[in-house]
């Protein structure tokens, strides 16, 4: 959808505040006063205030280009969890936080991340649940100027070697949702940029969580209870499908990762650059780090303490990971 404009009554410093124009034709009262020998009085000057251009805001996220500026022109690094509470949790690690409320629950947290003696301009905002909501938010973020976006989400494990509480860094995702089929052909793979993946791997090591972090291909679905847990009349079919994905090598199942990867690839199309140009030459990159809430047989019987641990680990990996990402882009200060 197109953005909308808000009224801004404050003139910009570069724009003349007003234009004063004297009335050219005397009023009838002025003519009568002249005939009677009185002093002629003109009407007060007419003041024309110029119309001011308000910043363009994206319709759903209520953010514009002025919100995404930072990091030496690369734009703010965006943390994009599905949960609004996790977006707020991530923002507790920021300094100089500016909160922008949103009637749709897509509250934005702008701030500065200081880590390891470096600073980074950052933004944390929820994508909402599911691929359709993620597509809207990701599209508008890119339109507003986002170029580095990392999903910090939750997922279920698809490999028995991955225990609840772990973190998974996705190198790609099975597109088991129809949303991205309207963006790219089904045969086009959803992959995270190699530099983004390596940055998150570096983050896992820097956070001291390599022992609890895994890397591999994920599974992005449009249905939770039917597709992942076999609910409904097609349960047996769905269960057989997800087990096939697991045997093929998928390590975790979520509902948004493939959307970020496909939209980032589409936004970068036609801008291929040699390695010598540096990572910053890639217009848009997406990464994904998932906290594992449940094992292969959890069926939503989740331990809240383990879920909190998974969130904390995924966030820690990502916080260190975005600093490595910024270093690869040459924008770390």
User: Helix and strand succession?
Assistant: EEHEEHEHEEEHEEEHEHEHEH
CATH class of the largest domain: Alpha Beta
Q: Within the CATH hierarchy, at the fold level, what is the topology of the largest domain?
A: Rossmann fold
- Per CATH, which architecture of the largest domain? 3-Layer(aba) Sandwich
Topology:
Elements: E1 4-5, E2 19-21, H1 28-35, E3 46-48, E4 56-57, H2 65-68, E5 77-79, H3 84-91, E6 95-100, E7 108-115, E8 118-125, H4 131-144, E9 148-157, E10 167-176, E11 190-191, H5 194-206, E12 213-221, H6 235-248, E13 252-254, H7 257-268, E14 285-294, H8 304-329
Parallel strand pairs: 5-8, 5-9, 9-14, 10-12, 12-13
Antiparallel strand pairs: 1-4, 2-3, 6-7, 7-8, 9-13, 10-11, 10-14
